[in-house]
Design a protein that fits this description.
The protein is an alpha/beta fold. The chain has 8 helices and 7 strands. It binds NADP nicotinamide-adenine-dinucleotide phosphate. The site of NADP nicotinamide-adenine-dinucleotide phosphate has 31 residues, from helix 1 and strand 2.
Length: 240
C-alpha cells in the first residue's frame, strides 16, 4: 500500500510508541488522527510533529475502553476525512501489580478493558466504514512468553495476538490484520531502573526506541501480502 494520502487513526498517540508511529506515518504522507486519553498537551505536540511533514492531522480525546467515546471519535474522523484506511491499535496500560495475588478485579478489568476490549471496540467501530485497509495491533513480548509483568497485562497482549489472527482470517482479502510484539521500549511505561535490568537481557545490549517499533508498523502497512503475522521487535530476546 502506498501510504501517501491515506487516512490513519493511531490510538494512544500522545506519547511513546504511538507518537513515533503517528510521525512515521506523516513522514510517508499519511493524514493522521491522534487519539489520546488525558494528555492533551502532548497530543497537540504529536499533532504539530505530524503537520510539520505537510499532512493533515487532528487530535481526538477518547478512552478506547468506552464504546460511546470510541463511536464519537470514529464519527469525527469520518466527518473530517470521509474514510479510514489504516488503524493502529496502540493504546495500552501496564497495570501496577505484578504479583498475581495482588491484582484486584477492578485492575484486571481496567487493563483488559483498555488493552484488549479497547482494541476490539475501536476495530468494530472502524470496520463500519473501512471496506479496504490495514490494521496493526501493538501487542507485546509478554503476550508470547508471559513476561515479567502482571498476569493481566500478559493475558491482554496474548489475547490481542489471538484477536489479530482471528480478524486476519475474517477480514481477508480486503483488510489485512497484523501485530507487532515489542520487547521493552524506552517510553514512560518503563522507568530507568527497569530499563537498566532489561538492557542486559537484550542481544543488542539496548532496549528499543519507539522509532524501532514504528519502523515495523510501516513495513507491515506497506506490504500487501502479509496478514495474520506478529513481528517481534525485541533485540533477540525471544526466538520462537
Ligand atoms: N514500552 C514498552 O516497553 C512496551 C513493550 C511492549 C508493548 N508495549 C505496548 O505499546 C503500546 C504503547 O506503549 P508506550 O510504551 O508507548 O506507552 P506510554 O508511553 O505509556 O503511552 C501510552 C499511550 O496510550 C494512551 N492511553 C492510555 N490509556 C488509554 C485509553 N484508555 N484510551 C486511549 N488512549 C490511552 C496514552 O494517552 P495519554 O497520554 O492521554 O494518557 C498514551 O498516548 C501499548 O499498547 C503497550 O502495551 C510497550
Amino acid at each position: 500500500m502506498n501510504l501517501k494520502g491515506k487516512v490513519a487513526l493511531v490510538t494512544g498517540a500522545s506519547r511513546g510508541i504511538g507518537r513515533a508511529i503517528a510521525v512515521a506515518l506523516a513522514k510517508k504522507g499519511c493524514h493522521v488522527v491522534i487519539n489520546y486519553a488525558r494528555d492533551k498537551e502532548n497530543a497537540k505536540k504529536t499533532e504539530e510533529m505530524c503537520r510539520a511533514h505537510g499532512v493533515e492531522s487532528i487530535i481526538i480525546k477518547a478512552d478506547v475502553s468506552k464504546r460511546e467515546e470510541v463511536k464519537k471519535m470514529v464519527e469525527k474522523v469520518i466527518h473530517k476525512f470521509g474514510r479510514i484506511d489504516i488503524l493502529v491499535n496502540n493504546a495500552g496500560i501496564l497495570g501496577k501489580s505484578i504479583d498475581p495475588m495482588k491484582i484486584s478485579d477492578e485492575e484486571w478489568d481496567r487493563v483488559l478493558g483498555v488493552n484488549l476490549k479497547g482494541a476490539f471496540i475501536v476495530t468494530q467501530e472502524v470496520l463500519k466504514y473501512m471496506k479496504k485497509g490495514k490494521i496493526v495491533n501493538i501487542a507485546s513480548i509478554a503476550g508470547k512468553d508471559g513476561g515479567t509483568v502482571g498476569a493481566h497485562y500478559a493475558a491482554s497482549k496474548g489475547g490481542l495476538i489471538a484477536l489479530t489472527f482471528n480478524l486476519a482470517r475474517h477480514l481477508a482479502p480486503n483488510i489485512l490484520v497484523n501485530a507487532v510484539a515489542p520487547g521493552p521500549v524506552a517510553t514512560d511505561m518503563i522507568n530507568e531502573e527497569m530499563r537498566e535490568k532489561l538492557r542486559k537481557l537484550s542481544l543488542t545490549g539496548e532496549i528499543a526506541k519507539p522509532e524501532d517499533i514504528a519502523h515495523a508498523v510501516i513495513f507491515l502497512l506497506e506490504n500487501d501480502h502479509i496478514t495474520g503475522e506478529v513481528i517481534d521487535v525485541n533485540g533477540g530476546r525471544l526466538m520462537d
